[in-house]
Amino acid sequence: MEAKIKEFMEALKGRTPGEIEFHQAVEEVIETVWDVYDANPKYKSAKILEKMCEPERTMMFRVPWINDAGEVELNRGYRVQFNSAIGPYKGGLRFHPSVTLSVLKFLGFEQTFKNSLTTLPMGGGKGGSDFNAKGRSDNEIMRFCQSFMTELCKYIGADTDVPAGDIGVGGREIGYLFGQYKRIRNEFTGVLTGKGREFGGSIVRPEATGYGSVYFAQHMLAEQKEEIKGKRVALSGFGNVSWGAASKLTELGAKVVTISGPDGYILDEAGFDAEKIEYMLELRATNNDVVAPYAEKFGAKFFAGKKPWEAKVDMAFPCAIQNELNEDDAKQLVANGCKYIIETSNMGCTAEAVNYAIKNCVFAPGKAANAGGVAVSGLEMSQNSMRYSWTAKEVDEKLAHIMSEIHATCVKYGTGADGKINYVKGANIGGFIKVADAMVAQGCV
Ligand code: 8G0
Questions:
Q1: Which backbone phi and psi does 241 adopt, to 5 degrees?
Q2: ∠ CA(322), CA(25), CA(149), 5° rounding?
């Protein structure tokens, strides 16, 4: 088996030279679904895995715009339409200087499996730009979004491809993008999710990724006869995802002690409360991409240039960006008594960290734990189609139910002969089968 996986990966690398993040994401999936693939001639003869690793379509385009000084600026825009076997392409837009085709391909690839796990009819896609919002004015961000959408609007639509936000794309950017789409196409449809409440956005969408991850963790802990209450928790990041996780964890009686930014991490021994959680939103709105001001405001410790994985905690939730937690970090967490790592960012842990964590603590992969975000985006699409909106209670209940279904799928496909649950295997196989069956049914397309 290992030789066949190696052969598959070598062929993929030959076709996609240099796309290291994409290779990393594919390898993790291939390793866990290979047995299922190998045992199903209908998948193999249709070359399902090979097809799943090739986006249906990839757009790359120029995004010119004018800065506040009147000068021309140039960025590159992308949309990767990865897989539409079970629904319209669906996935966020990331505006961040680290964005490359490889990063968006890894994200679009993972999105396909994640969206399948949500039980909702959504295919996989991802897009974005290498645009850096740091230090940019609101007007510059608007002009960039308008130029980006002027090109993107040719490829998306409520029944074709429905982007959303991601890193660097929040409610403000979605508003500008939606306005430009509506102006060019002259249609008011649910072409984007994560919209403002006034124009079709779903309630609970901003909190959904973080809430969902905590709901998933509750099920993991229940399997171990434990509960969230009283746990010390390390979070990374200080954006939307980290904020949602912090508020749900705090509500459930956990003590959140860290958040982080590109400048370092905050250790707040007093734990987070409502005022501090609210302040995370203020920090983000400054466009400065720093967490240090939190330490001064609330009398907490700040460790410049360090990651929060050196803190002594029971649970860790990486909530920032890919590969933010490596093997040494995982070892340090476990050595300090951490029993749970809940990957809440996409591919937040390196491959080595994942392998170590699976063996030495209880580990949840991002495509299961963070699927609540896109799940509520799926609910936003449904509400837009109905021209109706659900209450916070209705959406939150649906989210909690979806997360429990995802956990059950992981248990179904990931429980080993020893009774231990391998959540990585469970999530990958669970996500894979539905997409693979749909692809087989639709023939050679
Ligand atoms: O709502 C979405 O479609 C969305 C946006 C950003 C990220 C993700 C994700 O699942 O990673 C989904």
A1: -70, -50
A2: 65
The answer to whether residues 37 and 148 belong to one domain is no
Same domain, 98 and 114: yes
Domain count, the chain: 3
Q: Mapping DSSP to helix (H, G, I), strand (E, B) and coil, where does residue 89 land?
A: strand
357 C-beta neighbours (distance < 10 Å), count: 28
DSSP three-state, residue 187: coil
Here the CATH number for the domain that contains residue 286 is 3.40.50.720
Which atom of ligand 1 has the smallest separation from the CA of 208? 1
Pocket test for ligand 1, best of 166, 322, 381 (most atoms within 8 A of CB): 166
- End-to-end CA gap in the chain: 28
Closest ligand 1 atom to Cα of 90: 3
In-domain check, residue 146: yes
Tell whether ligand 1 has an atom less than 6 A from the beta carbon of residue 114: yes
202 lines ligand 1 (CB under 6 A): no
Give the domain range for residue 18. Answer: 1-50
Q: Which of 209, 213, 216, 406 to mutate to test the pocket of ligand 1 (most atoms within 8 A of CB)?
A: 209
Paired strand residues for 128 = 78, 94
Strands 89-95 and 161-164: parallel
Residue with CA closest to ligand 1 atom 3 = 91
209 lines ligand 1 (CB under 6 A): no
Rounded distance between C-alpha atoms, residue 163 and residue 280, angstroms:
25
- Structure-token match 């860790």, residue found: 316
| Shared-domain flag, residues 312 and 360 | yes
User: Is the whole-model pTM more than 0.70?
Assistant: yes
Q: What is the structure's pLDDT at 287?
A: 81
Least-confidence region, from 104-113, 279-288, 290-299? 279-288
Q: Is the Cα torsion angle 24, 28, 29, 31 positive or negative in sign?
A: positive
Asked whether 143 lines ligand 1 (CB < 6 A), one says: no
254 plus 358 within the same structural domain: yes
Q: Is 166 in the pocket of ligand 1 (CB under 6 A)?
A: yes
264 and 228 both lie in a single domain: yes
Mutate to test the pocket of ligand 1, among 216, 374, 380 (most ligand atoms within 8 A of CB): 374
CB 322 near ligand 1, within 6 Å: no
The answer to whether residues 232 and 313 touch, using CB atoms and an 8 Å cutoff, is yes
Over range 205-230, report the average pLDDT.
Answer: 98
Backbone angles phi, psi at 267, to 5 degrees: -115, 115
- At 382-425, the pLDDT tens digits run 999 999 999 999 999 999 999 999 999 999 999 999 999 999 99
